[in-house]
Amino acid sequence: MQWSVSCYGLIPDREPAAHHTNIDIRSSSYIPRAPAHCRNFRRLETQAVSCTCALLSRTIDRTALRRRIMPTLHGKPAPMTSEPADWLLPPRRGVRTAGGTKLIGGAGGDSETVEWRSREAERSKLLPVRVETPPGMNPAGGVLATASTMEYSTPKPQLSSRANAFSIAALISTGNSKEKEIQENTIKPLEQFVEKSSCSQPLGDLSSLELGDYSGSASPVCTEPLIPTTPTVPSAEMAKISCSLETKELWDKFHELGTEMIITKSGRRMFPTIRVSLSGVDPEAKYIVLMDIVSVDNKRYRYAYHRSSWLVAGKADPPLPARLYVHPDCPFTGEQLLKQMVSFEKVKLTNNELDQHGHIILNSMHKYQPRVHIIKKKDHTASLVNLKSEEFRTFIFPETVFTAVTAYQNQLITKLKIDSNPFAKGFRDSSRLTDMERYCFQEESVENLIQKHTYARSPIRTYGGEDDGLGDESQASQTRGSAFTTSDNLTLSTWVASSSNFSGFQHPQSLTAISTSTASLAAPIPHPIQGSLPPYSRIGMPLTPSAIASSMQGSGPTFPTFHMPRYHHYFQQGPYAAIQGLRHSSAVMTHFV
Amino acid sequence: MQWSVSCYGLIPDREPAAHHTNIDIRSSSYIPRAPAHCRNFRRLETQAVSCTCALLSRTIDRTALRRRIMPTLHGKPAPMTSEPADWLLPPRRGVRTAGGTKLIGGAGGDSETVEWRSREAERSKLLPVRVETPPGMNPAGGVLATASTMEYSTPKPQLSSRANAFSIAALISTGNSKEKEIQENTIKPLEQFVEKSSCSQPLGDLSSLELGDYSGSASPVCTEPLIPTTPTVPSAEMAKISCSLETKELWDKFHELGTEMIITKSGRRMFPTIRVSLSGVDPEAKYIVLMDIVSVDNKRYRYAYHRSSWLVAGKADPPLPARLYVHPDCPFTGEQLLKQMVSFEKVKLTNNELDQHGHIILNSMHKYQPRVHIIKKKDHTASLVNLKSEEFRTFIFPETVFTAVTAYQNQLITKLKIDSNPFAKGFRDSSRLTDMERYCFQEESVENLIQKHTYARSPIRTYGGEDDGLGDESQASQTRGSAFTTSDNLTLSTWVASSSNFSGFQHPQSLTAISTSTASLAAPIPHPIQGSLPPYSRIGMPLTPSAIASSMQGSGPTFPTFHMPRYHHYFQQGPYAAIQGLRHSSAVMTHFV
DNA sequence: AATTTCACACCTAGGTGGAAACAT
DNA sequence: ATGTTTCCACCTAGGTGTGAAATT
């Protein structure tokens, strides 16, 4: 069985033989990506053209098969008879050249059939994964979602059908009220777990926080605390601080599907990135902004491919050394915080217990909640270790809950990551919006939308110096997070010392909806920042307690610098950041104001 | 006339036709770089193989001709009869494949001859460019330099001859005593200019520094000061500070040839990078480290291609707004400065007077001297504007003098940049050291040398956290710079205010040799830091005086962070950084110690 | 059988010099 | 005739998911 591909629009002075490639998809030797002479096609063409011919046909191994094909069985009524191992994946990307794409061959027997079957099956993954099919949803699992809820008519049957099924548009809540309502009325599986587990957990030994004493150790091995939800009453000054999550829409998209974050030995960035805007700070004061990630519950999970859902797989694995990630630009002046957002794009997650890079260490298949802390450097004459004088507040955004994984479980998460993370652009379907589709629906291309939003708004989070046209998504929506604050004598050292205890957990139940808050969040139970200390500065050394402590003494300013690469990077982070709603959920969730 | 090339060692399953390319070098259409199917060869082969077949033959335009061929006429006695416009450049890079290289064709008439002529002529550029042929040097200009001074026998005549002429080894002072002595006894043309101009310049109006008053303006247009060389006596504390230039050998190499730095509208980095190590600082104190670039003299230069030398072309152009470049990691703690070097790799040079990015603005074809300043943040309660209390010192490394250009003038500088800047690796001759040469001279490959020096030494400038094997050139040689210090009431504001005056200049005459200093450097004339203010922080805004001022108030620490990409980047910066001497010129040039 | 690791193609982001086009 | 600008191929550096292989 052979597929062959012809690419149009190539520079004409190449030999035709090089343009035409025959690949035996049954050959025992797997063809990795496009061969060099195929990849070269791309270079011969314009930027917009993606042509990876060799990938039109390939075999997949068991694991990939199970992950990619099996989940779709659940949602699709079409009977599956053949062994999954015999299936073939459809081309991972469509072939699109300047002149068009044409499948020439494809003379396969059952393979071809199966390929189409699985392609249809994949389309069924359009809608968010649910444990139960919610009322009002298509029981079949959303095979028709593309056309029905997104108001797209059926796309071209060949490559574009699958491509469109996973298109940005198909995965976005574009404000279409019908789908919007359905989603809001539906219990998301992740939230089910979160809320169930949070409710089942007692408050626990949060009161016995001062047992351990690792504060003097350079590399204390501390365990990860659960989320304490009952903060003390903050000082009036700290209470005024509010914190909003940038790119909330993107986070929401992931949250609906059940966010997963890859963890690797060498460390993997989070995507989406935690980005917050702080307000209510004193422009003259200095602040430390940091984040950590704490367990949501005491459970280990597994992903049931046949049900496309997460299941509890038992008790949590032994806790790992907890780490703080201090923002590399710390300390900030209040003035800075008011003008610019704080992006934690550089934080990395790892499953390596012995990590020496200061990455945050997590257990795979566990559920986690990132937290953002802000500490006021109140006393610049503070000693190195005695940090009892500083105040801090903690903000939690429930939509940022995620499951740590070493490989993606839910294919929709993979798809959403690919479509929204610019670094994964190489895996996108280049035929997402073909010329035909644009013509048929008079719809603006994604690129146009991005451009519009890029230039229609003025950058509010940056100084105006960089005239490179950045500023897209600068008014992207935000959401105010719930805040836990303490101004008592709990310190970073205490966080370290106390983190060897497992604490009870109660997830903020009312925070899953935007713009609401409950007074129960202000219960006067201290909220220690717990965990071992992160490495020192940019140098890669573990941050010792004294190092973190010394970083908070004094009132030194962040000296002016000229470059903003750190803030550049994800200002445009793929289609989502730009085209997802301009709403700004400005409701401040702090009840201390 | 046609050249054709056959590349060996390619992956065998490519069509032979694709391996063999015939290119009419007389064709009117210029072939830019290697065509795609030729470039592809490179990908098919190993990393070490570079194959850009199409460049074996090409025509060049007038400008390139004048710049590249004409200079070689001067040094070469061979008579030139034909018009330069008819010449052909030799292949810009050699063709080297895993299996070897073979010139198949080459049936040209005079073109071929001329090509060989110019190739030989290029070899004459081996030695530093000199205005006068110094005694002891080959009067012909060094055509035989490769064989004679480098103790290489005549290399292979074809591609490798030229390749070797520009090899790293040929351009390095490898410690070979014979050449070393010759070089040290020779007056370099740039130094001639520097010293002549410095001597001919009166001290000038250095005393009338406080005339202007731009200190309150956000974007004051100030002129660039000449180098003041007579500092006041520093405070005892500041006098202890010494500053050494990292990668001095690389700077020396460029200095010998007459360093040129490209300036572009959008800004161009410096190469080599200004990197200094500071010692004698108070570990507990906070410091600001910044740099600026000042005119060396009041002259404009032009490059005489036919003489391969720089000539004075008249008085300097009107001065441009002077800019300070504050190191983006400021403020530093003294502890940090003692542990790590300060790299100004991100500073950019521009010729755009209206630059809004905070890049340093220079006049093309003018000679400049970078300076490094360190300011102690003495009083953390200082007001925003009143900065009269801080002390600072200035360090000048004469080997970092350069001429700003919009296009390289001296071809040897181009060659050295290409060979030493990793970003220019694409322009390197892959055949610099062929297998044959290695065999003949039992010489270690450049790669081996780099590797040796990479792993033989332990990193001393970084914390040990990053275990990625970096640390090469970590003990690379340094040289102590001359220091100008003041502890009087001259401030950054004063620098701004006074920079609209042209000041006299006296270049430190004794600093061209390592480890010497003259007492005249300590003459008690204030050394203001002058110029307009750089943009604010990473945000891209011009740095206002108050911004720079506020950055120096308080005693706040640089908060610990985890990543050190900024310090990674140029730790390995091409062969030179690694293989150029392990000497550490540790002689401290400050006479205040 | 489930999960983790690894090498790798393919991106983003941006630093190089070359050559032609442009400006003066 | 000389100097400058622009575009581009070709690098460095590193962030993506992929699928086979390794590990548990």
UniProtKB/TrEMBL annotation, chains A, B:
T-box domain location: 245-429
One MF term in the entry's GO annotations: DNA-binding transcription factor activity, RNA polymerase II-specific
Residues covered by region (Disordered): 73-92, 460-483
GO biological process: cell fate specification; heart development; positive regulation of DNA-templated transcription
Coiled-coil annotated residue ranges, if any: none
Pfam families, alphabetized: T-box
Compartments reported by the entry: Nucleus
UniProt-listed SMART domains: TBOX
Keywords: DNA-binding, Nucleus, Transcription, Transcription regulation
Segments of skewed composition (Polar residues): 474-483
GO cellular component entries: chromatin; nucleus
InterPro entries named in the record: p53-like_TF_DNA-bd_sf, T-box_DNA-bd, T-box_sf, TF_T-box, TF_T-box_CS
Record-given protein name: T-box transcription factor TBX20
The species this protein was found in: Chiloscyllium punctatum
